[in-house]
Amino acid sequence: AQKITQTQPGMFVQEKEAVTLDCTYDTSDQSYGLFWYKQPSSGEMIFLIYQGSYDEQNATEGRYSLNFQKARKSANLVISASQLGDSAMYFCAMREPGSTSNTGKLIFGQGTTLQVKP
Amino acid sequence: DAGVIQSPRHEVTEMGQEVTLRCKPISGHDYLFWYRQTMMRGLELLIYFNNNVPIDDSGMPEDRFSAKMPNASFSTLKIQPSEPRDSAVYFCASTLGDWNEQFFGPGTRLTVL
User: Fold this and answer.
1) Which of A14, A31, B1, B3 has the fewest CB within 10 Å, making it most exposed?
2) Rounded to whole angstroms, how far apart are CA atoms A21 and A105?
3) Which residues of A touch B33 (CB under 8 A)?
4) A61: which chain B residues are within 8 Å (Cβ-Cβ)?
5) Main-chain phi, psi angles of B103, to 5 degrees
6) Is B99–A109 a contact, with Cβ atoms under 8 angstroms apart?
Protein backbone atom coordinates (compact mmCIF):
# COMPACT_ATOMS: atom_id res chain seq x y z
CA ALA A 1 0.00 0.00 0.00
CA GLN A 2 1.08 3.53 -0.69
CA LYS A 3 2.52 5.40 2.25
CA ILE A 4 3.93 8.84 3.02
CA THR A 5 6.39 9.39 5.86
CA GLN A 6 7.38 12.69 7.39
CA THR A 7 9.91 11.95 10.11
CA GLN A 8 10.26 15.46 11.52
CA PRO A 9 7.36 16.30 13.83
CA GLY A 10 8.78 19.77 14.47
CA MET A 11 11.45 22.00 12.98
CA PHE A 12 12.92 25.39 13.84
CA VAL A 13 14.62 27.75 11.41
CA GLN A 14 16.02 31.22 11.74
CA GLU A 15 14.34 33.92 9.70
CA LYS A 16 15.97 34.39 6.27
CA GLU A 17 17.63 30.98 6.35
CA ALA A 18 16.69 27.99 4.19
CA VAL A 19 15.04 24.90 5.60
CA THR A 20 14.39 21.41 4.25
CA LEU A 21 11.36 19.39 5.26
CA ASP A 22 11.72 15.68 4.66
CA CYS A 23 9.26 13.40 2.94
CA THR A 24 9.66 9.82 1.83
CA TYR A 25 7.09 7.75 0.06
CA ASP A 26 6.46 4.15 -0.74
CA THR A 27 4.76 2.99 -3.89
CA SER A 28 5.13 0.30 -6.49
CA ASP A 29 3.47 2.42 -9.15
CA GLN A 30 5.46 4.17 -11.86
CA SER A 31 3.01 7.03 -12.29
CA TYR A 32 2.20 9.17 -9.29
CA GLY A 33 2.20 12.75 -8.11
CA LEU A 34 3.72 14.38 -5.06
CA PHE A 35 2.36 17.46 -3.35
CA TRP A 36 3.15 19.79 -0.51
CA TYR A 37 0.47 21.69 1.37
CA LYS A 38 0.82 24.34 4.07
CA GLN A 39 -1.61 24.60 6.96
CA PRO A 40 -1.21 27.76 9.05
CA SER A 41 -2.73 28.08 12.48
CA SER A 42 -5.90 29.45 10.89
CA GLY A 43 -6.51 25.95 9.57
CA GLU A 44 -6.85 26.27 5.81
CA MET A 45 -4.94 23.98 3.46
CA ILE A 46 -2.78 25.90 1.01
CA PHE A 47 -1.29 24.16 -2.01
CA LEU A 48 2.41 24.89 -2.43
CA ILE A 49 3.97 22.72 -5.09
CA TYR A 50 3.51 19.64 -7.27
CA GLN A 51 5.95 17.12 -8.77
CA GLY A 52 4.96 14.44 -11.24
CA SER A 53 6.84 11.16 -11.14
CA TYR A 54 7.91 11.57 -14.77
CA ASP A 55 9.04 15.16 -14.38
CA GLU A 56 12.77 15.29 -14.87
CA GLN A 57 13.24 18.73 -13.41
CA ASN A 58 12.64 19.53 -9.76
CA ALA A 59 9.53 21.64 -9.31
CA THR A 60 9.94 25.22 -8.12
CA GLU A 61 7.38 27.83 -7.08
CA GLY A 62 8.87 31.06 -5.83
CA ARG A 63 10.70 30.34 -2.58
CA TYR A 64 9.55 26.72 -2.61
CA SER A 65 11.37 23.94 -4.40
CA LEU A 66 10.92 20.22 -4.31
CA ASN A 67 14.04 18.09 -4.11
CA PHE A 68 12.82 15.00 -5.94
CA GLN A 69 15.03 11.92 -5.70
CA LYS A 70 13.09 9.17 -7.39
CA ALA A 71 15.49 6.32 -6.68
CA ARG A 72 15.45 7.16 -3.00
CA LYS A 73 11.70 7.80 -3.06
CA SER A 74 12.09 11.14 -1.40
CA ALA A 75 10.39 14.46 -2.13
CA ASN A 76 11.78 17.01 0.27
CA LEU A 77 10.45 20.55 0.38
CA VAL A 78 13.03 23.33 0.47
CA ILE A 79 11.95 26.76 1.62
CA SER A 80 14.49 29.45 0.91
CA ALA A 81 14.80 32.74 2.81
CA SER A 82 12.33 31.75 5.53
CA GLN A 83 9.82 34.33 6.67
CA LEU A 84 7.84 34.55 9.90
CA GLY A 85 4.71 33.83 7.90
CA ASP A 86 6.13 30.44 6.93
CA SER A 87 5.44 29.17 10.45
CA ALA A 88 2.84 26.47 9.90
CA MET A 89 2.23 22.76 9.56
CA TYR A 90 3.46 21.29 6.27
CA PHE A 91 2.00 18.17 4.70
CA CYS A 92 3.50 15.99 2.03
CA ALA A 93 0.99 14.02 -0.01
CA MET A 94 1.03 11.51 -2.83
CA ARG A 95 -1.59 10.94 -5.47
CA GLU A 96 -2.16 7.35 -6.33
CA PRO A 97 -2.39 6.61 -10.04
CA GLY A 98 -5.90 6.63 -11.36
CA SER A 99 -7.80 4.36 -13.66
CA THR A 100 -10.79 4.69 -15.92
CA SER A 101 -13.05 4.56 -12.89
CA ASN A 102 -10.86 6.12 -10.21
CA THR A 103 -9.05 9.44 -10.27
CA GLY A 104 -6.50 8.40 -7.68
CA LYS A 105 -6.61 9.55 -4.10
CA LEU A 106 -4.37 11.85 -2.13
CA ILE A 107 -2.58 10.18 0.77
CA PHE A 108 -1.12 12.54 3.35
CA GLY A 109 1.82 12.28 5.69
CA GLN A 110 1.50 13.19 9.34
CA GLY A 111 2.92 16.65 8.83
CA THR A 112 5.86 18.71 10.08
CA THR A 113 5.40 21.80 12.21
CA LEU A 114 7.80 24.54 11.18
CA GLN A 115 8.54 27.50 13.43
CA VAL A 116 10.48 30.43 12.05
CA LYS A 117 12.41 32.38 14.67
CA PRO A 118 12.96 36.14 14.29
CA ASP B 1 -13.48 33.57 -8.31
CA ALA B 2 -14.87 32.12 -5.11
CA GLY B 3 -13.03 29.16 -3.71
CA VAL B 4 -14.55 26.08 -2.12
CA ILE B 5 -17.20 27.15 0.35
CA GLN B 6 -18.04 25.18 3.46
CA SER B 7 -20.67 25.74 6.09
CA PRO B 8 -20.91 25.96 8.95
CA ARG B 9 -17.36 26.89 9.91
CA HIS B 10 -17.90 25.71 13.45
CA GLU B 11 -20.45 23.27 14.81
CA VAL B 12 -20.97 22.24 18.40
CA THR B 13 -23.53 19.56 19.06
CA GLU B 14 -24.43 16.95 21.59
CA MET B 15 -23.90 13.26 21.24
CA GLY B 16 -26.74 11.60 19.41
CA GLN B 17 -27.69 14.62 17.34
CA GLU B 18 -27.66 14.70 13.56
CA VAL B 19 -24.99 16.87 11.97
CA THR B 20 -24.97 18.08 8.37
CA LEU B 21 -21.91 19.66 6.82
CA ARG B 22 -22.21 21.48 3.52
CA CYS B 23 -19.86 22.15 0.64
CA LYS B 24 -20.01 24.17 -2.54
CA PRO B 25 -17.18 23.27 -4.92
CA ILE B 26 -15.50 25.63 -7.32
CA SER B 27 -17.69 26.15 -10.34
CA GLY B 28 -16.75 23.83 -13.18
CA HIS B 29 -14.88 21.33 -11.06
CA ASP B 30 -15.97 17.75 -11.58
CA TYR B 31 -14.36 16.08 -8.58
CA LEU B 32 -15.32 16.66 -4.96
CA PHE B 33 -13.56 15.16 -1.96
CA TRP B 34 -14.44 15.00 1.75
CA TYR B 35 -11.58 14.71 4.26
CA ARG B 36 -11.41 14.46 8.02
CA GLN B 37 -8.48 15.76 10.08
CA THR B 38 -7.77 14.63 13.63
CA MET B 39 -4.67 14.67 15.77
CA MET B 40 -4.63 10.91 16.02
CA ARG B 41 -5.27 9.97 12.39
CA GLY B 42 -4.13 13.03 10.51
CA LEU B 43 -5.82 13.84 7.21
CA GLU B 44 -7.86 11.01 5.78
CA LEU B 45 -10.10 10.83 2.74
CA LEU B 46 -13.66 9.85 3.52
CA ILE B 47 -15.32 9.84 0.12
CA TYR B 48 -15.08 11.44 -3.28
CA PHE B 49 -17.45 12.14 -6.16
CA ASN B 50 -16.97 12.50 -9.87
CA ASN B 51 -19.71 14.30 -11.79
CA ASN B 52 -21.94 14.00 -8.71
CA VAL B 53 -21.51 10.22 -8.51
CA PRO B 54 -19.80 8.66 -5.47
CA ILE B 55 -16.69 6.86 -6.69
CA ASP B 56 -14.90 5.70 -3.57
CA ASP B 57 -16.42 5.69 -0.10
CA SER B 58 -13.99 3.24 1.44
CA GLY B 59 -12.84 5.87 3.90
CA MET B 60 -16.26 6.45 5.42
CA PRO B 61 -15.80 5.20 8.96
CA GLU B 62 -19.20 3.67 9.60
CA ASP B 63 -22.82 3.65 8.59
CA ARG B 64 -23.46 6.72 10.70
CA PHE B 65 -21.69 8.72 7.99
CA SER B 66 -23.34 9.44 4.66
CA ALA B 67 -22.57 11.84 1.84
CA LYS B 68 -24.58 13.10 -1.10
CA MET B 69 -24.02 15.30 -4.09
CA PRO B 70 -27.43 16.15 -5.57
CA ASN B 71 -25.94 18.51 -8.16
CA ALA B 72 -22.64 19.87 -9.38
CA SER B 73 -22.64 22.78 -6.96
CA PHE B 74 -23.57 21.20 -3.66
CA SER B 75 -22.59 18.31 -1.42
CA THR B 76 -23.44 17.27 2.11
CA LEU B 77 -21.78 15.07 4.67
CA LYS B 78 -24.16 13.84 7.33
CA ILE B 79 -23.42 12.14 10.63
CA GLN B 80 -26.35 10.51 12.38
CA PRO B 81 -26.12 9.93 15.27
CA SER B 82 -23.02 11.89 16.14
CA GLU B 83 -20.51 10.70 18.75
CA PRO B 84 -17.71 12.52 20.60
CA ARG B 85 -15.09 10.63 18.55
CA ASP B 86 -16.45 12.33 15.44
CA SER B 87 -15.00 15.61 16.69
CA ALA B 88 -12.60 16.76 13.99
CA VAL B 89 -12.08 19.27 11.22
CA TYR B 90 -13.87 18.23 8.05
CA PHE B 91 -12.53 19.55 4.76
CA CYS B 92 -14.13 19.59 1.37
CA ALA B 93 -11.91 19.89 -1.71
CA SER B 94 -12.59 20.08 -5.42
CA THR B 95 -10.63 19.78 -8.62
CA LEU B 96 -10.98 19.33 -12.36
CA GLY B 97 -10.08 16.50 -14.66
CA ASP B 98 -6.57 15.10 -14.62
CA TRP B 99 -5.56 17.23 -11.74
CA ASN B 100 -2.32 18.27 -10.13
CA GLU B 101 -3.88 20.30 -7.36
CA GLN B 102 -6.85 19.94 -5.06
CA PHE B 103 -8.47 23.14 -3.83
CA PHE B 104 -9.52 22.92 -0.21
CA GLY B 105 -12.30 24.72 1.57
CA PRO B 106 -11.72 26.41 4.93
CA GLY B 107 -13.00 23.39 6.84
CA THR B 108 -15.73 22.81 9.40
CA ARG B 109 -14.60 22.31 12.97
CA LEU B 110 -17.03 19.86 14.55
CA THR B 111 -17.22 19.34 18.29
CA VAL B 112 -19.50 16.63 19.64
CA LEU B 113 -20.06 16.87 23.38
Assistant:
1) B1
2) 23
3) 106
4) none
5) -100, 120
6) no
**B81, B68 Cβ separation under 8 angstroms:** no
CA distances from B35 to A19, A106, B107 (A): 29, 10, 9
Per-residue model confidence as pLDDT tens digits over A11-57: 999 999 999 999 999 988 888 899 999 999 999 999 999 999 999 89
**Count of CB contacts below 8 A, A vs B?**
46
**Nearest-CB residue to B106 (from A44, A103, A110):** A44
Partner residue opposite B50 with nearest CB, options A44, A103, A106: A103
Of A46-55, A86-95, A99-108, the poorest mean pLDDT is in A99-108
CA atoms in the 13 A half-sphere facing the CB of B49 = 26
How does pLDDT run across B3-43, given as a tens digit for each residue?
A: 999 999 999 999 999 999 999 999 999 999 999 999 988 99
Q: How many alpha carbons fall within 13 Å on the CB side of residue A39?
A: 24
